[in-house]
């Protein structure tokens, strides 16, 4: 467990502004909306604010009513908010759409190699036999959550297989860092840069595996996920900037600090619970909060980014606009901080109570021993 010191009033103010700004954006049924609404759901779970759930449900219902798009790996990201809505409201229509997404991922989504999901953004075969780290959030993590909920071992195994092969294809064993993508046809990482948001997708979703499936140690591929995350977070911790953030190309000191990736990586560290990451999380808390505008925008979030041709391509991506993925990852980190802060205070209070009990017990024992000693002396004198 990472013990964090938090200003709950400041966190709640930032969360509230970010939720309301996010729900005011006209996001459609695609991955930006999926990541954003995952963050709103996390804010609801951390705060218990019914208003957040009501806003989320109203917008998801509106999107359903106007008609849903065809399924791709990326559009499946909306399944995360459907899970929350079905759980809280009990309405089956959310579950029905979720089942359609699972059917697509299991039986119709493009795959290559050992059943690896190809990154898809449209009905076209845009990226033949390419694995992108994004897919871990949009599809694999969703499959894992649904499989765990339904006690569907086959679905859990499929999800873990996605993690395993994305680790195999994307993680650099020397640094622990993840490349943005892998081209199985060419057998390379294309331009071969350690893009920060790719590392956030990988780190955050891997940090959730052990928290999602019961007895994760009984799944052999979980050991790969756990070890991969350990090595990755050790690598990214060394690259954190003095502002508590990470650059859009992690190991490029001339690239800008990027907030969606910074929030996602910090959220992974917080969930991972390694006490060696305590200072990094504390620094990220200040760095991220400093980039939340009063009206709830997470600033300095890079626009949608393909696997760029060169370093300059990554450096040149605009960070001017408010983005759904920035809102979602920012909300996820701040919600995690709020929960962790409450847990820290509870643990500290329990430690204090235990210390007080021990102190009282020691005092009682000392008094009892002293009384016995005094009696013994009197007997001897007598």
From TrEMBL:
Listed InterPro entries: 6-hairpin_glycosidase_sf (IPR008928), 6hp_glycosidase-like_sf (IPR012341), Glyco_hydro_88 (IPR010905), PolySaccharide_Degr_Enz (IPR052043)
TM regions (residue ranges): none
Residue spans of biased composition, Low complexity class: 354-382
Organism domain of life: Bacteria
One Pfam match: Glyco_hydro_88
SUPFAM superfamilies: Six-hairpin glycosidases
Gene Ontology BP term (one): carbohydrate metabolic process
Molecular function GO terms recorded: hydrolase activity
Region (Disordered): 348-382
Keywords per UniProt: Hydrolase
PANTHER family the record matches: UNSATURATED RHAMNOGALACTURONAN HYDROLASE (EUROFUNG) (PTHR33886:SF8)
Protein name: Glycoside hydrolase 105 family protein
